[in-house]
Amino acid sequence: MNHKGTILDVRTPEEFMGGHVANSINIPLNEIVERTEEIKTLKQPITLCCASGGRSGQATAYLKGLGIDCENGGSWLDVNFEINSK
After folding, report:
1. Fewer CB under 10 Å: which end of the chain, C or N?
2. pLDDT value at 44 more than 70
3. What angle do CA 28, 2, 72 make, to 5 degrees?
């Protein structure tokens, strides 16, 4: 997992407020399409995460289809562990 880019959390704002990866950005899955231009300006590669990896997987597939350098990091807890164990 490459952490030189941006961590994008696609959970709801309520879920995000309950805990998230430090310095991550919250754009809920239901806003990904309308905020695509904003996402294109984020530092790439983008690692997407959510609660379990399902929503971030959907967002990753969509963004990769647009040529955005991104990967599905799965659960935000796993991404958080990867970053903090380096």
Report:
1. C
2. yes
3. 40
